[in-house]
Design a protein that fits this description.
CATH class of the largest domain: Alpha Beta
CATH superfamily of the largest domain: Thiamin diphosphate (ThDP)-binding fold, Pyr/PP domains
Mean pLDDT: 95
Number of helices: 13
Strand order of the largest sheet: 3-2-4-5-7-6-12
């Protein structure tokens, strides 16, 4: 089993994870690939469509065993989405797999028109999302995808936090008759959910309860929020942590409950602070007339620093230490 990059978590954060009994698992992308492979073995109607991303999408074994159920289009994201929409309209269960930065920028018109507005239930899979490509820089970062897709009608958006959420999202997707976007990173993840946890698109998962600060996080930032909450417990700060795996539709009930029960809210995302989870929460709260102290933690509106994912997270305060400091500053 692969281990996390040494700098992804500080020694103190890894110690807190150990205290919580958390185990390191594999990358969500690996969980996606194996789950999709299992679905395709059981149903010949399951089709994977890729854009020169069979390897990066971990679909090599899929292609070898099920060559009739995978279509490789090369670097042609617009064609990818158009063909996926056509297959879905003919009754196939289609997963369109491509790097998130290119899938949701180059093919945005096809996503809007061929998938969403034409109501074709394509499962759009954005891989290596956020800043997973790290040192390749801003051209390969996907910090716009949630904002762009939130503005389009008839598509749900899911960002899994761990292997359980990744597997559940792909299994649920197979049965859905509505367009869906699922976003995956590349780094190995701690397993944060207990056995028996239920997953439902549109309903967040409460990882712990508290009344001082609510961390509302999504995707690979959730573990950092959970560790921050545990580190603050020793300082007398009680934290609620929500894994907001669905960005659209939002779990309004959980967000409003957190805002009414806690003194402050910190939203956390691997996305530009414009148009993502934080602004969605802020809009919901303002329109409901609930106005707690709020801080949106993500990538600010600037030229993003270059480095590996861990360096970028740490630079922007998406870490146990950074989030704990942010929460304490809000309470002061």
């Amino acid at each position: 089993m692969s281990a996390p990059a040494p700098s992804m978590f500080s020694p103190a954060a890894m110690e807190v994870a150990q205290q919580l009994g958390l185990k390191m698992r594999r990358a969500n992308l690996d969980e996606f690939a194996d789950t999709l492979f299992g679905l395709a073995r059981a149903d010949r109607n399951v089709i994977a469509v890729t854009s020169d991303s069979r390897g990066s999408g971990k679909l090599g074994p899929f292609g070898k065993e099920l060559p009739g159920q995978i279509i490789e289009l090369g670097i042609a994201e617009q064609n990818l989405v158009g063909i996926a929409a056509g297959l879905a309209s003919a009754g196939k269960i289609v997963y369109a797999v491509s790097p998130a930065c290119f899938l949701t920028a180059r093919a945005l018109e096809q996503i809007k028109n061929d998938v969403c507005y034409s109501d074709n239930p394509v499962k759009l899979i954005g891989i290596s999302a956020g800043v997973s490509y790290g040192a390749l820089g801003s051209t390969h970062h996907s910090l716009h995808d949630l904002a762009a897709l939130r503005a389009i009608n008839n598509i749900d958006i899911v960002v899994p936090a761990d292997n359980f959420e990744a597997r559940s999202a792909i299994e649920v997707a197979a049965e859905r008759t509505k367009p869906l976007y699922v976003r995956f990173g590349k780094a190995p993840q701690y397993q944060i959910h207990r056995d028996g946890t239920e997953f439902e698109i549109g309903r967040s998962i409460r990882l712990r309860d508290g009344g001082d600060v609510a961390f509302i996080a999504t995707g690979e930032t959730v573990i950092h929020a959970l560790l921050a909450a545990e580190s603050l417990r020793g300082k007398g700060v009680s934290c609620r942590v929500l894994s907001m795996h669905t960005i659209k539709p939002l779990d309004a009930e959980a967000i409003l409950s957190a805002a009414r029960s806690c003194r402050a809210i910190v939203t956390v995302e691997e996305h530009m602070i414009n148009g993502g989870l934080g602004e969605a929460c802020a809009s919901l709260l303002m329109q409901a007339g609930v106005t707690p102290r709020l801080k949106i933690v993500g990538i600010p509106d600037e030229y993003t620093v270059t480095g590996i994912q861990a360096d970028i997270f740490r630079h922007y305060g998406i870490s146990m230490e950074g989030l704990a400091a942010t929460a304490q500053s809000l309470l002061r």
